[in-house]
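Example 3.2
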Amino acid sequence: MKFLQRFDPRKSLTVRIIMVNLALILLALGSLVLWTGYRLQKSIIESAESELEVRSLIVANGLREPIQQQLAYEEAYKEKGGNDHEEEEDGEKDGEGGDDNGDHELVFAPIGDRDFKAIVDSYANEMNARVTILDPNLDVRYSSDPNVPVHIEDSHPEILAALQQTENHDIRYDEWTDEMRLFVAAPILGNEGIEGIVQLSIPMNEISEQVRSTWLTLITAALALTVLFIAASIVLGEQITRPLHRLTAAAHRLAEGDLSTRLDMDRQDELGTLAAAFDHMAEEISQLLARERAFVANASHELRSPVTSIQLRAELLQMASLSEERRQRYIREIRQESEQLGHLIQQLLDLDRVQSAPPAVGDPIDPAPCLRKVFALMQPLGEAAGLSMHASIPTTLPAIRMDEKSCEIVMRNLLDNAIKYTPAGGEVHLETRATEAGVEIVVRDSGIGIPEQELPLVFERFYRVDKARDRTGSGLGLALVRDLLAQFGGDIRAWSKEGEGTEMIVHFPKAA
């Protein structure tokens, strides 16, 4: 049963390929064999007909004088009553009469060293055909085939054509030999018109055998090609399905948790492209799961720290011996940790929303009002930290495909980072300009900067350059900015030099 299942087209791509190819091959080769066989069969028969017609003309031309001598001899024989010819051998007679009434014996005129009968028989041997001589009244005068009696011939197509001095042929059943024969005829022309008709015929056996041989050759060639195509289809099917089986097995291993599964298939065709795509997918899944595990670990750690701090201070507040000053201090610290925890949770929710839901793209907006609004909200925070805040925002900017809330999230995170990592006395600049491609926004600070080797990592989730110096940041702000911009077709890049400051360059494409 399992063996038969291998040939189930519903379960085997190879079988379907073979069946489709076989159907196409049979249709194409069948049509070609039928058309070619028919044309060759027709050509063989036409060639035999044409050759036999040429032979009949040769015989008719060669019998022109002998037929005249034979007719003259017969006429003289009838006038003398046949008495002067008793010495003729019995073998020279061939039945009764040659005229319409059949009232005298057929005699053959001596022509040179032969007689008329011998001449006709010699043509029959040379032409390898039956030669039958008829007079204009369609009386059979003589036939090289002894099976053909002296009789009046029917008005067959080739006879009628010869009487009209044209050519025709006919394939029909011959009652004298019980076989199918090919018949042609040609007129024997004399000075006074048609003096007789030569009818040539050959059996269809040889022609039919040649036709059968031709058909057999074509069918054999078609079968050989069919077998060859089936073998090629099997090889092609195996070449296609073998990598697919490998891909299926690899997919099952990957689904079972073997993230090291790779195909490593060295092919340049579509299957090689598919294998490369699978390997890339496996690599991306492996990295994604690694990032997710790191995300869970980091999120757990980041959430655990403020929760632990809140619990500890809550327990300390329950102590009766705690002074009022220390009690108020713990209450302030609990409030700060709660705010930090709420900020972290909100960023996690925003990041999840950005990554799991498609962007809510509405009508294009002019980002200038959003930039002015966010800067106005963040300016007091920067000034309270002892910073000099500067903004250069045009009255209007090219429209971008982003909603106002997303724009605010991006700008608030960038300005918050710039304020947070710039010491008192420093500066924060917000600059915007329109470009041919869209809008470019630069947030520049004169803060502590980022080490060059860590610059590519600042957009990773929970990544902080120096956790010891940053106890308020979550490491999610820039990751949220990057993912949010990507959903709207924008991008962000960073430049920084340790001790000199940092630049965050944001690009928004124009709305289509």
